[in-house]
């Protein structure tokens, strides 16, 4: 697949190779937790669950037990998709939120809290594909929560940023459990400082022992619902009791001999596929770097314009995904890309704070898994005595009448977190993902093109300088982005802005498998504390 596994650029680290199994995660302890489960006889699915559960402990700045999750699972020669995102409460409505004085959905607090899907997702993955008991798979996470662990540098950085913001804006009593849980010393923990959460450990143990039943139909469910309602929210015990994750058919687009796979809406993976469907009509060989970047940026802008207009809960979409991914529609959108930057507008196809991990075992199974509380710590609500930090996914709903993603009871919102997967000729190449809000489809597009168009190995594909479209003609670039190229893009009408903070450009993981030897090749993003654990 790659021109070379050695890349001459000194900034690029080398990939890691192994045969027995591999787990790539944004935090070393979580990757090691997954590897430990593999060594105990677990498969890639068990390892992914173990790493995901550990991440709720060792990287609470980006996810938690109250998160949503999505997974793409390759096993026995077939790709399966799991949507473990939760819906809005049945008692909420756009009218009720507007009547409470809100012109748009609040970002923090109890109103944007939706049903957490992650625990049910772990249990369902374990039930259908796992080899070890869920209680055993969650044990590494339980140990870290119970005994403590030294906080990693990137987590400490985002922890401090969140604490500095929250101490200014979280003045109501229902936010106090966040501070007692995540800032027990009256501040955020520093890099290398030990932090533990016994409440978190007890909750994880209950989830493991009951297959997540306690979370949705037991004592935890009752405590969650009672606390959310006391804080002014709408979530009820009946919403939790009714929840089940959904197995879905992954969607894909063909790209230069490969198939790129994503979870269907309500996830925004469709945006990445639409962008690739547009750019595949262009030639990215040769040395015209400026034109290459220009076309990528313009394609992503057009794909996002469509995605933000049409993507929502698939049961509420009025636009067929097949139309949006058709060759004809891709060609029509491609024809709009000229020599200068444009303001993106949605087309008419009917007219003709996240963690990502990848896991693989030596038997051929591979998992692309992502979970998130959203915006770092989520809603700011921690259910007292449980360690459960609740997500604020409902903040992405629109209150606008007629909007595709309008808030409705029991509806899933447009979702930013997306796992990716690559296949070729019906065989698995492997899982990939780039976390980070609306950067995610942009990261997916860039690492896929780095891999396929430019022949970069996983580590180089992740470490390459990234760009990020943020709206209109504004494009952020990293400090390592070529300055001459940035200036040339500006002359084409792009509003190029260099940012010193690489945190918004996503943090990714990749594992590829050689179809002939079964050798695994993994990379982890240099923008975070991640590692590839392998044997």
TrEMBL record:
Cross-referenced Pfam families: G_glu_transpept (PF01019)
Post-translational modification: Cleaved by autocatalysis into a large and a small subunit.
Record field: catalytic activity: an N-terminal (5-L-glutamyl)-[peptide] + an alpha-amino acid = 5-L-glutamyl amino acid + an N-terminal L-alpha-aminoacyl-[peptide]; glutathione + H2O = L-cysteinylglycine + L-glutamate; an S-substituted glutathione + H2O = an S-substituted L-cysteinylglycine + L-glutamate
InterPro entries according to UniProt: GGT-like_enzyme, GGT_lsub, GGT_peptidase, GGT_ssub_C, Ntn_hydrolases_N
Heme keyword on record: no
Pathway annotation: Sulfur metabolism; glutathione metabolism
Record EC number: 2.3.2.2, 3.4.19.13
Keywords, alphabetical: Acyltransferase, Glutathione biosynthesis, Hydrolase, Transferase, Zymogen
Key word Acyltransferase present: yes
Source species, domain of life: Bacteria
Gene3D superfamilies, sorted: 1.10.246.130, 3.60.20.40
UniProt record similarity statement: Belongs to the gamma-glutamyltransferase family.
Binding partners and assembly: This enzyme consists of two polypeptide chains, which are synthesized in precursor form from a single polypeptide.
Name this protein carries in UniProt: Glutathione hydrolase proenzyme
Organism: Paenibacillus physcomitrellae
UniProt lineage: Bacteria, Bacillati, Bacillota, Bacilli, Bacillales
């Amino acid at each position: 697949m790659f021109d070379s596994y050695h890349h001459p650029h000194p900034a690029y680290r080398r990939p890691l190779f192994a045969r027995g199994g591999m787990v790539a995660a944004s935090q070393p302890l979580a990757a090691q937790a997954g590897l430990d489960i593999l060594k105990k006889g677990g498969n890639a699915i068990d390892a992914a669950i173990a790493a995901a559960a550990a991440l709720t402990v060792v990287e609470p700045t980006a996810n938690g037990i109250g998160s949503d999750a999505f997974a793409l699972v390759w096993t026995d020669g077939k790709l399966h998709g799991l949507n473990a995102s939760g819906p809005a409460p049945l008692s909420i409505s756009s009218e009720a939120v507007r009547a409470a004085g809100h012109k748009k959905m609040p970002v923090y607090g109890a109103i944007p809290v939706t049903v957490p899907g992650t625990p049910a997702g772990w249990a369902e993955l374990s039930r259908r594909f796992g080899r070890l008991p869920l209680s055993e798979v969650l044990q590494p996470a339980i140990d870290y929560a119970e005994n403590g662990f030294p906080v990693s540098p990137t987590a400490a950085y985002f922890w401090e940023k969140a604490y500095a913001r929250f101490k200014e804006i979280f003045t109501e009593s229902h936010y106090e459990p966040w501070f007692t849980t995540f800032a027990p010393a009256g501040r955020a923990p520093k890099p290398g400082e030990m932090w533990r959460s016994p409440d978190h450990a007890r909750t994880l143990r209950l989830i493991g022992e009951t297959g997540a039943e306690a979370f949705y139909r037991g004592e935890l469910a009752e405590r969650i619902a009672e606390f959310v309602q006391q804080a002014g929210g709408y979530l009820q015990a009946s919403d939790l009791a009714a929840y089940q994750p959904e197995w879905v058919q992954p969607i894909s687009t063909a790209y230069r001999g490969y198939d790129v796979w994503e979870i269907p809406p309500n996830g925004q993976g469709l945006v990445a596929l639409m962008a690739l469907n547009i750019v595949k009509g262009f030639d990215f060989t040769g040395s015209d770097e400026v034109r290459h970047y220009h076309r990528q940026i313009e394609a992503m802008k057009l794909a996002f314009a469509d995605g933000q207009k049409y993507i929502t809960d698939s049961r509420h979409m009025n636009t067929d995904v097949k139309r949006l991914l058709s060759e004809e529609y891709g060609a029509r959108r491609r024809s709009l890309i000229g020599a200068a930057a444009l303001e993106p507008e949605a087309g008419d196809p009917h007219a003709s704070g996240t963690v990502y991990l990848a896991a693989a075992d030596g038997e051929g199974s591979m998992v692309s898994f992502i979970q998130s509380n959203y915006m770092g710590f989520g809603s700011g609500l921690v259910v007292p005595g449980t360690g459960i930090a609740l997500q604020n996914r409902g903040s992405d709903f629109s209150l606008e009448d007629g909007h595709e993603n309008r808030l409705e009871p029991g509806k899933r919102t447009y979702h930013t977190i997306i796992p990716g997967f690559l296949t070729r000729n019906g065989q698995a190449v492997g899982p990939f993902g780039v976390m980070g809000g609306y950067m995610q489809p942009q990261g997916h597009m860039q690492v896929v093109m780095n891999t396929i168009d430019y022949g970069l190995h996983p580590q180089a594909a992740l470490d390459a300088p990234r760009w990020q479209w943020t709206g209109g003609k504004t494009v952020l670039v990293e400090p390592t982005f070529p300055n001459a190229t940035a200036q040339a893009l500006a002359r084409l009408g792009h509003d190029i802005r260099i940012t010193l903070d690489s945190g918004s450009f996503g943090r990714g993981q990749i594992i590829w498998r050689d179809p002939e030897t079964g050798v695994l090749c993994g990379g982890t993003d240099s923008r975070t504390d991640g590692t590839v654990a392998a044997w």
